[in-house]
Design a protein that fits this description.
Helix content: 25-40%
Number of helices: 5
Shape: elongated
Order of helices and strands: HHEHEHEEEEEEEHEEEEEEE
Amino acid sequence: MAKPQPPNSTPSIVNRDGTINVRRLGLKRVPFSDIYHRLIGTTWPRFLGSLVLFYLLSNTLFASLYLLEPGGIENARPGSFGDAYAFSVQTMATIGYGKMAPVGAFCHLVVTFESLFGMMTTAVMTGLFFAKFSRPTARILFSRVAIMTVRDGVHSLVFRVANERGNQVVEAQLRLWLFRTERTVEGEQVRRFYELPLTRSQSPVFALTWTATHVIDEKSMLAGATVESLLAGSVELVVTFMGIDNTLAQNVHARHGYRTHDIVFGHRFVDILKVDEQGRRVINYHDFHHTVALDEKPSTA
């Protein structure tokens, strides 16, 4: 595996996993205004953890309200938070075991609000779960490094992309962008974006792997690039992927970032396509990220 380059002095805009590395200050935020988008976009562990925490806190709140009226719950032990909490769970879930029941007017009022709250919460949670499950996602694997190499006798920038799912992504499209720090005539430091053309930016059926290549000619923004020049410009590469999931018939997308120290010079990717004894084509994903020096001869199948 190639040795990584020194890290950038300027933080990257796009992380390796495609998330945006930007902290926003000075915006007016309304509490809970984006809670739906946050829950849909977050990971499953955080999503489930948030719902469980919300459920526990809600029952804790209603249990505390029930305790405000002593003797308001029939068959409950006086002052028992555990019984009040169990009664709250039964009320919110409309279980109703029949052992405990509201007695006082205040507890009846709380039960009315909790029953309505429970129905609304169930509806919202059901919608969130359905939206979360039905949301199309792309499991796209990007090589950990991009390499500056010689391919077909031409200086090129090369990286790998693969479909981790067993399905097909039709009308797949790849775009490569270069982010670079520059200074204007007035001396202002700005971050500018340039699209780097790929020799093949579309694929009718993306089912296996894709070796993306940008030819570094005299028109390329990477012409004459060295490790030092990349570091000086705080260069980062951003890859965007779009396609249509053949199973769900919906658009999927992914994004990946390569920082300066993720760009390797004078290497090539290890061959991963071989033919087995039965004549079938085999893809070895164990070597998907591995590179070797250009002077090493390719292995034969």
